[in-house]
Automatic annotation (TrEMBL):
Pfam (any one): ABC_tran
Organism of derivation: mine drainage metagenome
Lineage per the UniProt record: unclassified sequences, metagenomes, ecological metagenomes
The protein, known as: Putative ABC transporter ATP-binding protein
GO molecular function: ATP binding; ATP hydrolysis activity
Swiss-Prot/TrEMBL keywords: ATP-binding, Nucleotide-binding, Repeat
Coiled coil: none
AAA+ ATPase domain mapped to chain residues: 25-192
InterPro entries from the UniProt entry: AAA+_ATPase (IPR003593), ABC_transporter-like_ATP-bd (IPR003439), ABC_transporter-like_CS (IPR017871), ABCF (IPR050611), P-loop_NTPase (IPR027417)
Length: 193
């Protein structure tokens, strides 16, 4: 799935050097370390972000096979309604299928599904962003600090959804309980923690 060795990544200067790890299908890897140590840079390098240069050996999935969710929910257009956001990623689904899918992520009721993304709470945005990603079930899911804006109810729901996710996962989080609940058994320490 993912194999990285002798890897460096950064922007104008290296943020990471000498990184090596392997992630098999279905495994869950936790990237941990202090803020600024390169966790998000590594995620963006795996995604093939053109703003991040990389060197070394990188065997990563095609970006189309990766679902990426960051703490700012960049995969959402804040002008869309919740329903329109799901419609963007499910053009062949019926309205009923889209509504059912949103309901699976606790986004129910006409008023809520017609609310613009920019007006949703942090927890509602998190659930919507996950709903959009889950609609296509990527081979690799990268979650970057998604628990920052979650209330307890949403956190429990997100944990339940992610436990059932069949693909490989890279989780960036300072929340050890969240990492344990998701089943992140592999750990890659970057810098000091």
């Amino acid at each position: 799935m993912v194999q990285v060795s002798g890897a460096s990544a950064g922007y104008e200067t290296p943020v990471l050097e000498g990184v090596a790890f392997t992630l098999a299908a279905g495994e869950r890897l936790a990237l941990v370390g202090r803020n600024g140590c390169g966790k998000s840079t590594l995620a963006r390098a795996i995604l093939g972000d053109p703003a991040v240069w990389r060197s070394g050996d990188w065997m990563v999935p095609d970006p189309a096979a990766i679902g990426y969710l960051d703490q700012h929910y960049a995969n959402l257009d804040w002008r869309d309604t919740a329903l329109a956001a799901v419609e963007r990623v499910t053009p062949t689904w019926s309205l009923s299928q889209r509504r059912h899918h949103l309901a699976d992520f606790l986004l129910r009721g006409e008023q809520l599904v017609q609310t613009r993304v920019g007006e949703l709470s942090g927890g509602e945005r998190a659930r919507l962003a996950l709903a959009c990603i889950a609609a296509r079930v990527p081979d690799l899911l990268i979650l970057d600090e998604i628990t920052n804006n979650l209330d307890l109810r949403t956190l429990h729901h997100v944990v339940d959804v992610l436990r059932d996710y069949p693909g490989a996962m890279i989780l960036i989080s300072h929340d050890d309980d969240f990492l344990a609940a998701i089943g992140a058994v592999c750990l890659l320490q970057l810098g000091e923690r």
